[in-house]
Design goal:
Strands 2-1-3-4 form a four-stranded parallel β-sheet, sandwiched between helices. It has a four-stranded parallel β-sheet with strand order 6-5-7-8. The longest helix has 18 residues. It is an alpha/beta fold. α14 packs parallel to α15. Helices cover about 45% and strands about 15% of the residues. The radius of gyration is 21 Å and the shape is globular. It has three domains: about 130 residues, NadA-like (Rossmann fold), CATH 3.40.50; about 100 residues, NadA-like (Rossmann fold, 3-Layer(aba) Sandwich); about 70 residues, 3-Layer(aba) Sandwich (Rossmann fold). The chain binds iron/sulfur cluster.
């Protein structure tokens, strides 16, 4: 085999990118590929700062799903976790959907296995099933209405008062919604590792040291954290609150990636990430979200892999519950 042919073979397999990575300017290459392939890069607020900075759009789960549904791009590059890329594919099946790392999962989605959930739903046949977007396509197919933390209250309130409800998979968000809406709901016992890791003692100590700070929290956090929060909201809600509040300092109880966007949009505010129970651990950072890097983003755009495929029958069942959410959220 000639040397040039050997190099081409290696390049096809992506090996040269690995060996010569120092020579690659990932930002330039991603920008070139975005143009060449008519791609749109969607990034979640919990992504690494450099990924947020190169994305076409940065948002929470609801805004990203809306963008994915309406995009005219040929390829959706989803810088987030697997269920988000899967949701994009369900909504826009004719597009190629790629994500930087197939192993970017979600502890909350994993806490709701489809076969167990199906059995649970069958035991309560007269219930409407509302599921948080952090679920697999199989769970969405067993769901009547999907929701995100931005629209969950509105979705629950849209359901007739005498209609019993199952809420899955996040027990903390479910308990918060029961309190907010006054609706009794059957809750699935799932949770997110990141939002369960916050230490109330350490947050209160921080507050004693910073009495001028406001504690703000995502509703996936445990009830005792929510009790001490001045404001509770989705990632987009928290961002908006920091921007518009007259306070100057905030202790933020959600995944720490949001602090990048907050600081960019509220340059005069002081932001402190809420500490977690374990010492010397980055538990307030989602390890799944942080699997994505600029290099992996570049590689997935170049090779259009890994891509998300969903069997059509499953997609048709799952899309109904997402479309109901999008209709109610208009
Ligand atoms: S922060 Fe929690 S809910 Fe969000 S992707 Fe990571 S594990 Fe899932």
């Amino acid at each position: 085999m000639k040397l040039t042919q050997a190099i081409e073979n290696l390049e096809d397999k992506g090996f040269l990118d690995i060996h010569f990575e120092k020579e690659i300017n990932y930002i330039d290459e991603i920008n070139k590929l975005r143009k060449e392939k008519n791609a749109v890069i969607l990034a979640h607020y919990y992504q690494r700062p450099e990924i947020q900075d190169i994305a076409d759009f940065v948002g929470d789960s609801l805004a990203l799903a809306q963008k994915a549904a309406e995009t005219q791009a040929d390829m959706i590059v989803f810088a987030g976790v697997h269920f988000m890329a899967e949701t994009a594919k369900i909504l826009n099946p004719s597009k190629k959907v790629v994500l930087p790392d197939l192993k970017a999962g979600c502890s909350l989605a994993d806490s709701c296995p489809p076969s167990d959930f199906e059995e649970f739903v069958k035991k309560h046949p007269n219930h409407v099933v509302v599921s948080y977007v952090n679920t697999s396509a199989e769970i969405k197919a067993l769901t009547d209405i999907v929701c995100t933390s931005s629209n969950a209250e509105k979705i629950i309130n849209s359901i007739p008062k005498d209609q019993p409800i199952i809420f899955a998979p996040d027990r903390n968000l479910g308990a918060y919604l029961i309190e907010k809406t006054g609706r009794e709901m059957l809750l699935w016992d799932g949770s997110c590792l990141v939002h369960e890791a916050f230490s109330i003692d350490k947050i209160l100590n921080l507050y004693i040291e910073n009495p001028d700070a406001e504690i703000i929290a995502h509703p996936e956090s445990q009830a005792h954290i929510l009790k001490i929060a001045k404001y509770i909201g989705s990632t987009a809600g928290l961002l908006n609150y920091v921007k518009t509040s007259t306070s100057k300092k905030f202790i933020v109880a959600t995944e720490a990636g949001i602090l990048h966007k907050m600081q960019k949009e509220a340059t005069d505010k002081i932001l402190i990430a809420a500490p977690s129970k374990e010492d010397n651990c980055n538990c307030s950072e989602c390890a799944f979200m942080k699997l994505n890097t600029l290099k992996k983003l570049y590689l997935c755009m170049k090779y259009e892999l890994p891509d998300v495929e969903i069997e059509e029958e499953l997609r048709k069942k799952a899309v109904k519950s997402i479309n109901r959410m999008l209709e109610i959220s208009k």
